[in-house]
Specification:
Length: about 450
């Protein structure tokens, strides 16, 4: 490994791992934002189509994270324990089972395409855009998404710069291809989907190649017979369960939110939330970059029983996430219209989004603490607690809040419900992480 996760200074190590991850995640977030900017130029209905089909992609992502996060977390722990062969077995299982899932998901999706689209309550104006877009995205994911699954493992072996490099390259590729396919070739929203798939496939080819060929990697991708395959798979899935449950719950919340946005508002309100979600994703990807650096350090040192290093990394990650969250929130608060006009020149949509965003994203300053905390518990094997913290944020609070507030406050009630969910979940996570620090102190003395 280029970085020694067990001996390097924590502050240096966290940023050496996190900064490439942040840059990689930011490029991915920028790609999503630019993608939606171009889609928004087609029409507001096209932008709504991207937002209203999001539950389908979230459900698919749930299984990707179940395998990808679970395997990368277990790889970190196995390497910390000095079990390189088992770490290599797990890498192979990640590719094998993500391919099996993607094929099965795509087949089922195409069989039940029309019933699925009916469940989403898509209007007649939006339906042509939504159908054209989501079919290309889902079918293309069979060869496009495996790279995103394995990319988590690059960071778990200390190769954050390699991970960043390919994400940046493919994000730039997508930004270049978007206007070509959408406007030059006149393919509309289908062009946006095709550009996305091409960039995803490029990432997959590259990640598989480096795991096959790079001699400096501590583990490699090999076709092999794995001893105790079911046991290792079970352990991976156990560690990936919190991320899986988060995504499934997020899909349910997204579907429920869209239903209420249409009930108490219009298609424009879904377009507005799509813009808000894009801006939130920019913030979230920064925090995720810190989380990925912290998780690699904590997973390795937890496996090596170096609990003092786990505590130091966690403390620095929490502090950094708070400062970044506060800075990004001030940007949203002070310049909402400037951000929104990047996505649309529709005056009504700009007004709706700029006003609603101040409610929807009002808990950003403490939300980073929740993200770091819940993901930390996952990587050190406390999957149940991580799941509980995730459930608080992604469903337990927001669904009843929407049920109570939306009939009274309309669409603003939905925005406030999101803020309530973020705020309460963050406070609970902060309490748990405080107790965790006390436990780590006691473990250091054993």
């Amino acid at each position: 490994m280029k970085l020694n996760l067990g001996t390097e200074k924590i502050s240096k190590l966290l940023w050496q791992l996190s900064i490439p991850a942040i840059l990689g995640m930011l490029s991915s977030a920028i790609f999503n934002i630019v993608d939606r900017i171009f889609v928004g130029k087609i029409s507001s209905y096209a932008l709504t189509a991207v937002g209203i089909t999001m539950p389908i992609q979230i459900i698919q992502m749930a299984f990707i994270l179940l395998i990808g996060i679970g395997t990368s977390s277990l790889i970190s722990i196995k390497l910390g324990q000095g079990k390189t062969e088992e770490a290599e077995d797990i890498l192979y299982l990640a590719l094998k089972y993500i391919l099996i899932f993607l094929i099965a998901f795509s087949v089922l999706f195409m069989i039940f395409l029309n019933p699925i689209l009916r469940i989403l309550s898509i209007s007649e104006e939006v339906l042509p855009y939504a159908k054209e877009y989501i079919v290309i995205i889902i079918l293309g994911s069979i060869i496009g998404i495996p790279g995103y699954c394995l990319n988590n493992s690059l960071r778990s072996i200390g190769q954050a710069k390699v991970s960043m490099k390919i994400i940046v390259i493919t994000s730039i590729m997508n930004i270049i291809l978007d206007p070509i396919f959408i406007f030059v070739l006149n393919l509309g929203i289908a062009g946006a989907a095709i550009a996305t798939v091409i960039s995803q496939v490029t990432l997959t080819v590259y990640v598989i190649y480096v795991f096959l060929r790079r001699p400096d990697f501590i583990i490699h991708l090999k076709l092999r017979k794995v001893e105790d395959e079911l046991y290792l798979l079970k352990e991976c899935l156990k560690m990936g369960q919190p991320s899986f449950y988060i995504q499934i719950l997020a899909a349910i919340v997204n579907l429920y939110m869209n239903h209420n946005l249409l009930k108490f508002g219009t298609d424009l309100d879904i377009a507005a939330v799509t813009i808000m979600s894009s801006i939130h994703s920019f913030y979230h990807m920064v925090i995720v970059g810190i989380v990925q650096g912290n998780n690699s350090i904590c997973g390795y040192n937890w496996g090596a029983k170096q609990y003092d290093r786990v505590g130091k990394s966690l403390e620095l990650a929490l502090f950094s996430s708070f400062l970044i969250s506060l800075g990004l929130y001030l940007l949203v608060l002070l310049y909402p219209q400037l951000l929104v006009t990047m996505f649309s020149d529709d005056p009504l949509l700009i007004e709706i989004t700029s006003t609603g965003m101040k409610f929807y994203l009002s808990m950003l300053p403490i939300l980073g603490l929740q993200t770091v905390s819940s993901q930390y518990f996952q990587v050190v094997g406390k999957a149940k607690l991580s799941s509980i913290l995730a459930f608080l944020r992604y469903g337990i609070i927001i669904i009843p809040a929407i049920y109570l507030l939306a009939p009274v406050l309309g669409v603003n009630g939905i925005y406030i419900s999101n803020a309530l969910s973020d705020g309460v979940a963050s406070v609970v996570a902060i309490v748990y992480i405080w107790f965790e620090f006390r436990k780590l102190k006691s473990l250091e003395q054993i």
